Amino acid sequence: MTAQRACGVNDVAVSSAVKVELDGIAVAIVKDSAGAIHAIGDTCTHGEISLSEGFVEGDAIECWAHGSQFALATGKPMNLPAYEPVPVFEVTIDGDDVLVDVQNPLTQQ
């Protein structure tokens, strides 16, 4: 695994997201409503909007511009207008650090 530090665990509040850039890839680090941390591609596949500026509900993130929701575990859109998934990246928690491997996505667009 080629994971690198994305942020601190406490840098992301429950039901919110922050945008980071790792190896030139925009990634949304998301803490779902249960407190689990996910890493997904930050760009909505419908309108090229930053997903980290959207809304986190349960285990999904919603694009603020057009309302498409993406499952945090799979990156798949849950409703239109988006129909292409966003990539999902492996997350490892090391102490207070969130490590993300952007070189080997778990799922891809």
UniProtKB/TrEMBL annotation:
This is Bifunctional 3-phenylpropionate/cinnamic acid dioxygenase ferredoxin subunit. It comes from Agrococcus baldri. The gene is hcaC. Keywords: 2Fe-2S, Dioxygenase, Iron, Iron-sulfur, Metal-binding, Oxidoreductase. Gene3D superfamilies: Rieske [2Fe-2S] iron-sulphur domain. GO terms for molecular function: 2 iron, 2 sulfur cluster binding; dioxygenase activity; metal ion binding; monooxygenase activity; oxidoreductase activity, acting on paired donors, with incorporation or reduction of molecular oxygen. The keyword Metal-binding applies. The keyword Flavoprotein does not apply. Residues 4-100 form the Rieske domain. PANTHER family: 3-PHENYLPROPIONATE_CINNAMIC ACID DIOXYGENASE FERREDOXIN SUBUNIT (PTHR21496:SF23), FERREDOXIN-RELATED (PTHR21496). Pfam families: Rieske. It comes from the Bacteria. SUPFAM superfamilies: ISP domain (SSF50022). PROSITE patterns: RIESKE (PS51296).
